[in-house]
Structure formats: structure tokens, C-alpha cells
Write a structure and sequence with these properties.
Blueprint lengths: L1 E2 L2 E2 L1 E4 L9 E5 L4 E5 L14 H12 L5 E4 L5 E2 H18 L5 H11 L7 H20 L11
Helix pairs in contact: 1-2, 2-3, 2-4, 3-4
């Protein structure tokens, strides 16, 4: 698509964070504008399909971007995006296991510590992650709003 005279590759997910998340890629600058596919201090699962979200992150990963612009926070390098992407996958796996919610939350906080650099952010990351483990388990591993499997 063209926007303000610039060409962007436009991608629309089918049920990731929401029913349809849009992200853009600018081949010339190698910038991916990914919106809420990355959130801080933790993923927000109220409307999410966690497995499809994981797949969307993998789709972004195979794009040769240098910088990712999330909906909130500072731009991410490719390595930083991958750190978040891998932490997300591990968190979903943990939430789907029999591990204690506090264990999953602590692992999330440790994996994302480079993004949550102060004590308050660390506490928020841990608290939100623990809450979302319970939320996902209570709702069969996804948001009640998730329309995909």
C-alpha cells in the first residue's frame, strides 16, 4: 500500500492480540511498525488468541527489519524484538503447563528484564504475568473473545 507517497507492506493478522491486528513494513528503511504485537511490561491477553499471537510474532521475525516500532515504548532492535518474542513463547508454554503461576511470572520477568529496568516495572511485569497465567488457565488458554483455535 501507499501512504503519504511511501510504499509499505501491509500485514493483517487473523486473531492475535485482537481479531485483526495491522502491522506495516517499510522495505526502504527496514522498519516494522508492529503496534501492540509487543506490549510492556507484559502481553495483554483480554482479547488475545495466544497461539495465533505467537505465529504473528514469528511472521514479523522472518521480515528483514532492523527496527520494530511497538504501539508503546521505545523502538526495538531486531535482537530486542527477538528477546521479547522468545520470552512470549516461553510464557505461553509455561501458562499452558502445570507450573505454578508464580514460576511462569518469575520466568517472564527475568526474560524481559532488559525492558523493565526499574524495580516498579519489574514488579508490574511479574504481577501482570502471574495474573495472566490464571486468566488464560481459567479461559481454556485464550481470551473468551478469541474466535480462532
Amino acid at each position: 500500500m501507499r501512504l503519504a507517497g511511501r510504499r509499505f507492506d501491509m500485514h493483517v493478522t487473523n486473531g492475535a492480540v485482537t481479531d485483526g491486528d495491522v502491522w506495516l513494513y517499510d522495505r526502504r528503511t527496514r522498519i516494522a511498525v508492529i503496534g501492540d504485537l509487543v506490549t510492556f511490561p507484559a502481553p495483554f491477553f483480554e482479547t488475545a488468541c495466544p497461539q495465533r499471537w505467537r505465529e504473528a510474532l514469528d511472521e514479523v521475525w522472518v521480515t528483514p527489519f532492523r527496527t520494530a516500532i511497538a504501539g508503546h515504548g521505545e523502538p526495538l532492535t531486531r535482537d530486542q524484538f527477538n528477546t521479547w518474542r522468545v520470552a512470549y513463547g516461553a510464557f505461553i508454554d509455561c501458562a499452558g503447563s502445570q507450573a505454578e503461576p508464580a514460576t511462569c511470572a518469575a520466568a517472564w520477568a527475568q526474560a524481559t528484564a532488559p525492558f523493565n529496568t526499574d524495580e516498579l516495572s519489574q514488579r508490574r511485569a511479574t504481577g501482570m504475568a502471574e495474573y495472566y497465567v490464571g486468566y488464560l488457565r481459567e479461559n481454556g488458554g485464550k481470551s473468551p473473545d478469541c474466535l480462532t483455535s
